[in-house]
Amino acid sequence: MLETTLCFPLRDSDSNVGRDVLLIEKRRGLGEGWYNGPGGKCEPGETPPECAIRETREEVGLEVTALEKAGELTFLLDGDTHSVCHVFRTRSFTGEPTASDEAHPEWIAIEDVPYDRMWDDDHLWLPGVLEGRTVVGEFRFEGGEPLDEAEFVAHDLEWDVSV
Ligand SMILES: CNc1ncnc2c1ncn2[C@@H]1O[C@H](COP(=O)(O)OP(=O)(O)OP(=O)(O)O)[C@@H](O)[C@H]1O
């Protein structure tokens, strides 16, 4: 079973009472060219929080000091589980976002998140996650590998459950 993570750093916005989220424009690998949170595959023996912290350090150079679990998403491809993604939020980090080979980071106001340039499922669960809710979801894709060329066909979501 492939386990992956996504991490969404949040900060109060400079200009108004709103909030910003740090997204990356992914430069290579699964979802290349799309926006997402920093994240990736768990390494053998690594827990999801450890993975989220490592991926955020490697991709954007932020040192995350505390995480809040926000969701667990199961992605199915042609009826089989492709991956389970552990979703985190954080307001606790040090450093400034820096671009890497893999990711171009950008602080974006949460009302301006570019859902039209993200995975097709993201608009269903990310707004609630950015508001502080928890979610468990299942998302069905069809059409064979790779997942980012398959078609998103169905989903099931549960909100405000323990994750
Ligand atoms: C299907 N709908 C989806 N919606 C939102 N996010 C999705 C996703 N499917 C995968 N993701 C995330 O995309 C990241 C890259 O995936 P990942 O397998 O790690 O690819 P990548 O080639 O970058 O590998 P490494 O960074 O080397 O681990 C990883 O955080 C993973 O959770």
Automatic annotation (TrEMBL):
This is Oxidized purine nucleoside triphosphate hydrolase. PROSITE patterns: NUDIX (PS51462), NUDIX_BOX (PS00893). GO terms for molecular function: 8-oxo-7,8-dihydroguanosine triphosphate pyrophosphatase activity; dATP diphosphatase activity; metal ion binding; RNA binding. One of its GO terms (cellular component) is cytoplasm. Belongs to the Nudix hydrolase family. It comes from Natrinema hispanicum. One of its GO terms (biological process) is DNA protection. It comes from the Archaea. Its EC number is 3.6.1.56. Keywords: Cytoplasm, Hydrolase, Magnesium, Metal-binding, RNA-binding. Residues 1-131 form the Nudix hydrolase domain. Pfam families: NUDIX (PF00293). Oxidized purine nucleoside triphosphate hydrolase which is a prominent sanitizer of the oxidized nucleotide pool. Catalyzes the hydrolysis of 2-oxo-dATP (2-hydroxy-dATP) into 2-oxo-dAMP. Also has a significant hydrolase activity toward 2-oxo-ATP, 8-oxo-dGTP and 8-oxo-dATP. Through the hydrolysis of oxidized purine nucleoside triphosphates, prevents their incorporation into DNA and the subsequent transversions A:T to C:G and G:C to T:A. Also catalyzes the hydrolysis of methylated purine nucleoside triphosphate preventing their integration into DNA. It is found in: Cytoplasm. It catalyses: 2-oxo-dATP + H2O = 2-oxo-dAMP + diphosphate + H(+); O(6)-methyl-dGTP + H2O = O(6)-methyl-dGMP + diphosphate + H(+); 2-oxo-ATP + H2O = 2-oxo-AMP + diphosphate + H(+); 8-oxo-dGTP + H2O = 8-oxo-dGMP + diphosphate + H(+). The keyword Hydrolase applies.
